[in-house]
Amino acid sequence: MGKKKFLAVLLTAALGMSTLAGCGATDTSTSGEAPDTNTVTEAATPAASEAEAADSTEKENKAVDLTFFTGKVETVDLLNQIISDYNQQSGGITVEQEYQADASNIIKIKFASGESPDLMTTYEQEYVNQGKYLDLSDRNEWWDRLIPSMKESCTDLESGKQYRVCTNMTMAGFFYNKEMFDELGLKVATTWPEFEANLEAIKEAHPDVDPWFIFGEAWHLGHLIEFMPHGYIKAKYGATEAKKAMLSNDSAKLDWGNPDGAMATFAKNLVELQKKGLINEDVLTATSDNCIDAFVTGKCAMFSNGMWCLSDLLTKNPDMADKIGFAPYPAFMEDGVPVVLVAEDSGYSISAETEHVDEVVDFLNFLFSAENQKKYAETLGSPSAFKDVDASWAPDSIVSGVNDAVASATNIGFTNEKPAGFSGDDAGRLVQDLLAGTYSPEEFAKAYEEAWNAGYTN
């Protein structure tokens, strides 16, 4: 959104507020215990008792199957646990989670075929415009608990309404090995020449270490575009103006195909690092697990990702806690500034076509309970967006480093305004082609522009 410190202060305040608010929270989840009907039975007439018993039997026997669609791999196992707990006490409502790695494209097929899931984490502006999501603006039981800036992040720019609710905040930037940086006397880079110099120093001192590890999964490479060339646009024009430019496809501001613009410069920098051996040779086949393994074993010095990977890092090597640094993305354009993602995370949308709104809301009330959200935040290593959730989402040294990074750079959000016909995974596949040598940087920028424009008509 705006520049620098606002969200850093908010993050710190939010963590403090959660400690104060937690004791007074009301758990809106379903407890799973049968209501105490003894007093009611004694006071009721036989006819009333029979009616209540019939209603109770009908609720217990109610069979409703809900479909929950997600592309968020980090949450699958945890949500399966929470879903299992819910299904056991739901009185006949059954939630089934479907994970798809290519969720942003699979959801297109589901919408087109009339098989919309009841609940989903996939969210695109164009689907808002098409009326695919239920308006959640009146769900005050959720909004009253949410940190105000997170409600703002969930608000549609055009209508002023909310079609999704997030449960967490997240930050994305460069994770780096503090021990290695201290050993070599390196400082966090704020410009691209400084960033490249750091990578070269690491390579010279540790030839067997990959200075920057990039894994070739499409969503990850798509994020590099969101956080770097898109980040440049967001910082240059501000959050609101950048969103408007993307929604209206304002080519004068976006300028994706310019051979001297942000997209081509990003591609040029990436290819140069690849040629110099400053990124891993197996970039096209490497996975996120490979990246985590390389970092916790000291085989890579830096990688780009969000807080959602933190739990995997600490699970693989708990001793890494004091060695994990976090830094903004350096400015790679002459008129650019360092940026760091500070945004909503784990957002949920209800299908406008579902016949089971009450049942979906019942499940979300269970999922959003303070108890489940504390577990969620601590398992994922992601600060809660709820004021009444007191979660120790990361060791103090990491929280402090994240707050410093957020305070030192322009805060940007996710690119939710991209065309529905051109997903983040689609953008990532173009980066795969770039790193495979299919495109020159200039050709890549042009191909990106063409795919972006076509995405508004597909």
Task: Describe the protein in words.
By secondary structure, the protein is α/β, with parallel strands linked by helices. It has 2 domains: 22-39 and 57-167 and 346-392, 3-Layer(aba) Sandwich (D-Maltodextrin-Binding Protein, domain 2), CATH 3.40.190; 171-343 and 400-454, D-Maltodextrin-Binding Protein, domain 2, CATH 3.40.190. The chain has 22 helices and 9 strands. The protein has helices spanning 6-21, 38-43, 46-60, 76-89, 103-112, 125-129, 140-143, 148-153, 178-184, 192-205, 218-227, 229-237, 239-247, 251-254, 262-275, 288-296, 310-316, 357-367, 370-380, 396-408, 424-435, 441-454; strands at residues 64-70, 93-99, 119-120, 165-177, 210-213, 300-306, 324-327, 339-350, 410-412. It is globular, with a radius of gyration of 24 Å. The two termini are 29 Å apart. Mean pLDDT is 88; it is low at 1-59.
Short description:
This protein has helices at residues 6-21, 38-43, 46-60, 76-89, 103-112, 125-129, 140-143, 148-153, 178-184, 192-205, 218-227, 229-237, 239-247, 251-254, 262-275, 288-296, 310-316, 357-367, 370-380, 396-408, 424-435, 441-454, and strands at residues 64-70, 93-99, 119-120, 165-177, 210-213, 300-306, 324-327, 339-350, 410-412. With 458 residues, it is of the alpha/beta class.
Kindly list the characteristics that best describe this protein.
D-Maltodextrin-Binding Protein, domain 2, nine-stranded mixed β-sheet, disordered N terminus, alpha/beta
Here the CATH topology of the largest domain equals: D-Maltodextrin-Binding Protein, domain 2
- What shape does the CA trace take? globular
Largest sheet: 9 strands, mixed
Query: What is the count of helical runs?
Result: 22
Question: What is the β-strand count?
Answer: 9
CATH hierarchy, class of the largest domain: Alpha Beta
Question: Mind telling me which CATH architecture of the largest domain this is?
Answer: 3-Layer(aba) Sandwich
